[in-house]
Design the sequence.
């Protein structure tokens, strides 16, 4: 049996989404900026896709949703755009982000630091989220932007976006949230959240890879990351990938319709898997079990290297992760677990399981059996665990 439990890295395209996309490869293939009927033929479905996107995040008609290549491009557009508009051309030189942001945020901020920008990296508390008051504490007169993720890609922890947005609004500071791991898992309401920008990728909610979105609240302007054309109202140059745009819009529609299923059935299967693993001694959910997206668990298994666990599970046809797929080949200790203050041993033991609406009870039962077997085998081989006192290994 094959069991895919790495849906925070990417998801399978929903077959219904694929069907919506198919006509735009060979039949309705015109460039949407062309004036002839071949180009105009793409417009109805493109407008429908935009309607689904606007509705899915409760955007206002006067807001902008720019179609990008992925969330990484959207994030770069916001942070570098603010750098150009508010830092180079104004008197603001400070950005605030959290320590556990996706590399798309932190790497971009490191680049800006090399250009003389001051960046504050907010620590997380014992639950793995940013304390609202710490945002307020570190705001400065020269703060141009606050960027805090909506939900963490490794722990699934949900951040207090509405409260942070209100603080930024009162301070007159722009607020961006990377909503990549939130859309399709929990409700995302940009009006309620007081955000100026959000970024997202279709492939995280059963849409195609290679397409993402950038929400821009009305009244906000950004220097484009890409120049060379008037597509997307001049906000992002380049011929629009119509098939992917249609796919992302329809995937958004289906994801929003499935939110109740995510909150009940996906959560039930996640909890079943998690509970079975936690019955093993010296296992713990990083960040605790509260205030998370319903599909995600990051579990530390003392005495078991995360990479070794993934190898064993892969042999059984099970896909999981040690954390962010964008850093999966980096064998350094998990930076999110380091941010929690985990000791050097535990920082290498985190394994992330992330489910989707396509996982089944049978798959979870199979995964539980394989995981328990892998933990027993690897602990018996571990020099740091296998030779500890028997009380240390109670139950194994």
Sequence:
């Amino acid at each position: 049996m094959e069991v895919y439990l790495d849906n925070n890295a990417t998801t399978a395209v929903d077959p219904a989404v694929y069907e919506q996309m198919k006509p735009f490869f060979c039949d309705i293939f015109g460039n949407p900026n062309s004036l002839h009927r071949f180009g105009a033929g793409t417009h109805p479905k493109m407008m429908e896709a935009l309607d689904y996107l606007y509705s899915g995040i409760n955007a206002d008609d006067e807001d902008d949703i720019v179609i990008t290549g992925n969330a990484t491009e959207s994030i770069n557009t916001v942070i570098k755009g603010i750098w150009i508009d508010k830092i180079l051309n104004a008197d603001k030189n400070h950005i605030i982000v959290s320590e556990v942001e996706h590399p798309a945020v932190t790497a971009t901020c490191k680049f800006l630091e090399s250009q003389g920008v001051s960046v504050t990296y907010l620590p997380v508390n014992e639950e793995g989220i940013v304390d609202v008051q710490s945002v307020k504490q570190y705001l400065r007169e020269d703060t141009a932007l606050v960027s805090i993720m909506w939900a963490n890609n490794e722990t699934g922890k949900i951040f207090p976006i509405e409260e942070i947005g209100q603080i930024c609004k009162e301070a007159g500071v722009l607020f961006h949230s990377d909503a990549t791991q939130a859309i399709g898992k929990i409700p995302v309401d940009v009006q309620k959240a007081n955000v100026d920008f959000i970024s997202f990728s279709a492939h995280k909610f059963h849409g195609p890879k290679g397409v993402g979105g950038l929400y821009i609240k009305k009244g906000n302007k950004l220097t484009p990351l890409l120049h060379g054309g008037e597509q997307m109202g001049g906000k992002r140059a380049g011929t629009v990938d119509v098939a992917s745009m249609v796919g992302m819009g329809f995937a958004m529609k289906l994801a929003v319709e499935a939110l109740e299923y995510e909150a009940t059935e996906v959560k039930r299967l996640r909890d079943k898997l998690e509970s079975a693993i936690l019955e093993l001694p010296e296992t713990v959910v990083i960040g605790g079990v509260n205030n998370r997206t319903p599909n995600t668990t990051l579990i530390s298994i003392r005495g078991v290297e995360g990479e070794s666990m993934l190898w064993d599970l892969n042999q059984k046809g099970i896909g999981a992760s040690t954390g962010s797929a964008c850093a999966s080949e980096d064998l350094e200790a998990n930076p999110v677990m380091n941010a929690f203050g985990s000791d050097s041993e535990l920082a290498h033991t985190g394994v992330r399981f992330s489910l989707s609406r396509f996982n089944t009870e049978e798959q979870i039962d199979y995964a539980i059996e394989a995981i328990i077997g892998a933990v027993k085998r690897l602990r018996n081989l571990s020099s740091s665990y296998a030779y500890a006192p028997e009380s240390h290994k109670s139950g194994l």
User: Anything to note?
Assistant: The two ends are 26 Å apart (CA to CA). DSSP finds 14 helices and twelve strands in the chain.
